[in-house]
Design a protein that fits this description.
alpha/beta, six-stranded mixed β-sheet, single chain, about 325 residues, elongated, four-stranded mixed β-sheet
């Protein structure tokens, strides 16, 4: 094998070239796929061999022992050089003008591929599946360990090839391939809320779990109003028993006033003259204090009959 020449090994093609990126020759469309441009002499040699189509090649970087695979797009490059996508040169750790060895290869059709995006931004695309399917149409093969580039909306997304089946390098031309995604490299699991953990620790230290009772739903608890402005009978009858039993502030004050000693009335009685009527609070000083009415003596109120649905008599049309 020598630079710029062929090494013949039976029916195999193997050649060493100097590699250059597609930007050097104004061919930006190469960046969207995995195909290279080779010189016309390579076509002459491949035509004389019985090589299976599509033409696939194995790339070797002898300096770093990196291996990848690619397809061929055209045979219009200058002799002794090959034009490659820049992202492929990054995978192979190649610089402009470095030597790379190409060898024809036959790869099985892929059945399963596992991908891992570098950043979570790729998952924020509205339809990443459609974008990925459109990009992979420009690819002829995938190799485990490579990183492919997906261009979308003026942004470049890099995706690692984590696993391929049934081999470490597979062809994806005219095949049904199952695609699986691994979490992105910068993905972080959401942290658990600290409030819940602090509450659980406090409950564990106290030894008792305090369960807050949730308010139950009570239907039809609102207040009704009449159109004529009068108070409804149902509202007056549905007064809670606690409100009846609790004495109001005005009743307490009245009881306190009646429980005062009668000495004040005796002192004011000397000021009154006989045969005259005295109007005012002192008029009742000689009288005994009135006792507060006892509620227990009142007759119990009768509960008004409540409305009961479907309690009428039934009649039959047949006799």
């Amino acid at each position: 094998m020598f630079f710029g020449g062929y090494a013949y090994h039976g029916s195999t093609f193997e050649q060493t070239y100097r590699c250059y990126p597609a930007s050097f020759f104004d061919k930006p469309h190469l960046e969207s796929g995995d195909k290279v441009i080779m010189p016309p002499s390579a076509l002459d040699r491949l035509a004389s061999l019985h090589i299976e189509y599509p033409m696939l090649f194995e790339l070797h970087n002898d300096a770093t022992q990196r291996i990848s695979h690619c397809g061929v797009l055209e045979f219009v490059a200058e002799e002794g050089m090959v034009i490659m996508p820049y992202w492929m040169m990054q995978n192979m750790l190649l610089q402009e003008g470095d030597t790379v060895r190409l060898k024809n290869a036959t790869l099985p059709k892929g059945k399963y591929v596992k991908l891992q995006p570098h950043t979570s931004d790729f998952l924020d695309i509205s339809n990443p599946k459609a974008i990925l399917e459109k990009t992979l149409r420009n690819f002829s093969c995938l190799t485990t360990g490579d990183s492919i580039m997906v261009a979308y909306n003026n942004k470049q997304y890099y995706i690692d090839i984590v696993e391929t089946k049934p081999a470490s390098a597979v062809s994806i031309i005219e095949t049904d391939c199952e695609v699986d995604f691994a979490p992105p490299l910068d993905y972080k699991e959401p942290e658990k809320p600290q409030q819940a953990t602090a509450a659980s620790k406090a409950a564990a230290e106290g030894g008792e779990t305090v369960v807050e009772e949730e308010p139950k739903f009570k239907p039809f608890t609102g207040s009704g109003k009449r159109l004529d402005g009068k108070a409804s009978k149902l509202q007056s009858s549905e007064v809670p028993s606690t409100a009846r039993s609790a004495p109001s502030d005005s009743n307490k004050r009245a009881n306190q006033q009646t429980s005062q000693p009668a000495t004040s009335g005796a002192s004011n009685s000397t000021r009154q003259k006989t045969g005259k009527l005295v109007f005012g609070s002192s008029a009742n000083n000689n009288k005994e204090p009135q006792k507060a009415p006892v509620k227990d003596d009142e007759p119990p109120k009768k509960d008004e009959p409540k409305f009961l649905a479907f309690t009428g008599k039934s009649y039959s049309l047949k006799r």
